[in-house]
Write a structure and sequence with these properties.
Structural class: mainly beta
Number of helices: 3
Radius of gyration: 18 Å
Number of domains: 1
Strand content: 25-35%
Order of helices and strands: EEEEEEEHEEEHHEEEEE
Bound molecules: zinc ion
Length: 243
């Protein structure tokens, strides 16, 4: 399940295919991966034969409704998370191609504020449910996402593998439980999956995001709407949480 090499010929961001802009809600961009209040999860139930099957045949939680109403800022939509993460090379905000650096694909993850010097403690492998980003939307995420705006790790990742699934496990005779199971775990038979978990291997920590080519500043925010005041430092409270 290892993706094709994520390094190799570097495509300059200025000539890379542009990632589509996401929908905006009250002046804020809404990543494609997020769920909306117009979308509802099903009643909790054991896996059904009719459920969509995903990676390794695991049944996947199938939501009803449409992406309307208001964004659920902290909730991934299971089907969209599956589609984006399974590709491993698609931007979680717009769904287009993620940014490739000479050292790997671009990921932005919140740094752990509980640790001193989080950049010094990056492991050789990091697990995440968040797909990578294109360069334009990585810059946007640093401005608009509450957790990433405070502090984040900018990573170039040369190798990515899907290693686990998070979801609700309905073992016979036991209460349902939310778990993360490895892909070879027999308990997957009883799971209704919600998130693919990727392992980012040998990540390289970058000092900062690569600069955005001038041409790509266009379209980075709604043309007529000024940036929301809540996005300006020093206070980041009130910003949505994309991660
Ligand atoms: Zn993008």
């Amino acid at each position: 399940m290892i993706a094709p090499p994520l390094t190799g010929p570097h495509t300059p961001a200025a000539v890379a295919p542009q990632c589509p802009d996401p929908v905006y809600f009250q002046g804020l961009p809404v990543p494609l991966i997020l769920a909306w209040t117009g979308e509802q999860p099903p009643e909790p139930a054991p896996p059904r034969a009719t459920d969509l099957r995903s990676v390794d045949g695991v049944r996947w939680e199938t939501w009803s409704g449409t992406p309307t109403g208001a964004p659920r800022w902290t909730v991934h939509h299971p089907a969209r998370q599956l589609e984006l993460m399974d590709a491993r090379t698609r931007c979680s905000v717009g769904g287009g191609p993620a940014h490739r650096t000479p050292r790997g694909l671009l990921w932005l993850l919140p740094a752990d504020p509980a640790q001193l010097g989080p950049r010094a403690t990056v492991a050789t492998a990091i697990r995440t449910a968040n797909p990578p980003l294109c360069l334009r939307h990585a810059h946007q995420a640093q401005r608009h996402c509450r957790r990433l705006a405070v502090d984040c790790l900018v990573l170039a990742v040369p190798e990515v593998e899907i290693v686990a699934i998070r979801g609700t496990v309905h073992r016979p005779g036991a209460h349902p439980s939310f778990e993360e199971l490895e892909l070879d775990d027999p308990g997957l038979e009883f799971m209704v999956g919600q998130q693919l978990i990727a392992e980012l291997r040998h990540p390289v920590v970058l000092e900062s995001l690569p600069p955005l080519p001038e041409a790509q500043h266009f379209g980075n925010k709604p043309p007529a709407a000024p940036p929301p005041a809540a996005c300006a430092p020093p206070s980041r409270r009130g910003l949505p949480d994309w991660t």
